[in-house]
Here is the input.
Amino acid sequence: MCGEQLARAGHTVNIFDEHLAWEKPCGGGLTHKAVECFPFLLDNPYPKKLVSSIELISSNEQSVMLDMSHPIVIYSRTVLNGMLLNRAAEAGCRVQRSHVMSVDTSEAKPRYCVDGEWRSADFLVLAAGARNRLLPETRPLERDELEMTQGYFVPETCDAITVKFLPHFEGYIWSFPRRNSIVTFCRRRENEHFPSAPCWARIGR
Ligand SMILES: Cc1cc2nc3c(=O)[nH]c(=O)nc-3n(C[C@H](O)[C@H](O)[C@H](O)COP(=O)(O)OP(=O)(O)OC[C@H]3O[C@@H](n4cnc5c(N)ncnc54)[C@H](O)[C@@H]3O)c2cc1C
Here is the structure.
């Protein structure tokens, strides 16, 4: 989106991503605030699912359904990334599937190394994920700064988001229905084990 807007403002933009559009581990849910800022996220022909209710299930199996006045829009990440990259390309960005090896900001113009060649630019925008090692003077996140998440794709869909808490487990399970599948994640604390299969049963029904 950043590249697209820079290109529309007349700048020359090169976008590098080693995967381009891919099903990265993410629910793909966009809030009403995001859609309000960028209406094209809703007004487009790409497949998506609009969800207006969330079921919360407590660790003793009590549940409540919350209805939202504005829906959450849920995309597959391949679709969402593809749409953003297509818009960037249409705006004039050069989109290239490549791994950026390293970045050097010690000189007046920042430099980056891609396909074995050092190039320079007026500005570099790094959006390479929380675990990237490219940003100068930063370090990768340590293990104890991360939480573990396990995810599944269930080949069916439903109408509500579900969030389920479990007894004796600080993390939780959440599921996001997409157009043709449900993506289900479980987040756990460092010292916890992921719950066994029966705990996923209700949420994946
Ligand atoms: C389990 C889970 C569920 C989530 N659910 C939601 C949700 O429902 N809604 C929501 O808004 N957010 C959600 N998030 C958060 C969301 O995924 C992240 O905030 C968002 O993806 C961060 O975007 P980013 O561009 O910074 O990094 P990323 O999405 O990680 O993208 C980084 C990109 O950089 C590329 N890259 C990395 N290194 C290099 C390199 N050296 N050279 C070239 N390319 C490189 C990768 O291929 C990747 O495409 C979720 C996250 C997780 C883990």
About this structure: The mean pLDDT is 90. DSSP finds four helices and twelve strands in the chain. Residues 52-70+142-205 form a domain with the D-Amino Acid Oxidase; Chain A, domain 2 fold (CATH 3.30.9.10).
